[in-house]
Amino acid sequence: MDGNIPKGLAEGGDVREICEACESKDLYPVLEAVENTGFQYEMVCCRACGLIQLSRVISEGRKGSLIWEGEFWDKPDLSYEQGRMGRHKKLLSLLKRYEVTGGQLLDVGCSFGGLLNVAMEMGFSVCGVDVSPVAIDYLRSECHIEAFYSVVDAAQKKGLFDVVVCRSTLFYFRSPIEALRHMRDALKPKGLLVIETQINRAWIIKLIKRMEKFCGRKLVSQSTLQSLIDSSFYSFGTNNLTFMLQRAGFNIIGLHNSYYGLLQLKPTLYSTAIALAKAVLNVLSFVIWVASLGHYKTAPVVAFYATRD
Question: What is the pLDDT of residues 213-244, one digit of tens each?
């Protein structure tokens, strides 16, 4: 969203040698991801905290970005938001637990404004941030909602916010720490940050790597590994995302399991197999979460509620 690319993360740059979460240097390669734009990058895993992160850009490809970095839509797709309305309502309903019932709300990665519309119904004044020109134009022209290309721009134009929400977006930033610091700077003192993200999938990658080392051969293709953690620059765990939030200046006041258990199958054998594999991983994670009474935080989707220090 904010376009600053950390040193070493442009094509031909140096390899990032420090974990984004815990700053350990004990990293090992796990995956070389290739997007359909030709964008290719290496991901490494931190032995200390388990974060899987972007290490270096191998090739910028045809467009110099992930397809999610602004060019996923060529026209508004309202069905995408309609399918997520229940999730938006559940996420925002929890704000009342933290005595937040109104004020200025910023949605980072707002897409076509589904969450923003729910927030307006709840009495919030809203604006959004996205990197998609299609989404920005739609919000401004059709919904009359103010929308910006970066958190910094939104804060400069609108002032500080009572709530900043970032759903299923943080792992697309090339530097989540930098993005979180921008979100902190956009909040009023004691303002509330809500981060919801897919989480705790790194264990399956590490398990596969150990099995491959034991067998002495590759068992799973790079594209399958990439699909299991989704096309993104980071795969978080509860502990390493906690480190990031604390380093960015936040105090975590709530952690909620946001698992919805919805399996969406696509009409190809490969994508159906990947969807089923993800569903099995999600169910296993959810069972462990429930059986341990929340002690083992393995839920596949987690919402963090944090205040600005």
Answer: 889 888 877 777 776 666 688 989 888 999 99
Count of other CB atoms within 10 angstroms of residue 158: 16
Secondary structure string (H, E, C) spanning the chain: CCCCCCCCCCCCCCCCCCCCCCCCCCEEEEEEEECCCCCEEEEEEECCCCCEEEEEEEECCCCCCCCCCCCCCCCCCHHHHHCCHHHHHHHHHHHHHHCCCCEEEEEECCCCCHHHHHHHHCCEEEEEECCCHHHHHHHHHCCCCCEECCHHHHHHHHCCEEEEEEECCHHHCCCHHHHHHHHHHCEEEEEEEEEEEECCCHHHHHHHHHHHHHHCCCCCCHHHHHHHCCCCCEECCHHHHHHHHHHCCEEEEEEEECCCCCCCCCCCHHHHHHHHHHHHHHHHHHHHHHHCCCCCCCCCEEEEEEEEC
Structure confidence at residue 33 as a pLDDT band (50, 70, 90):
confident
**What confidence tens digit (pLDDT) does each residue in 96-120 have?**
999 999 999 999 999 999 999 999 9
Q: Which CATH fold would you assign to the domain 78-200+233-308?
A: Rossmann fold (3.40.50)
Q: Give the CA count within 13 Å in the CB-facing half-sphere of 164.
A: 33
Give the global pTM.
0.80
| Alpha carbons 243 and 295: distance in angstroms, whole number | 18
Provide the token pair at 163. Answer: 């709530």
Q: What is the mean pLDDT of the chain?
A: 80
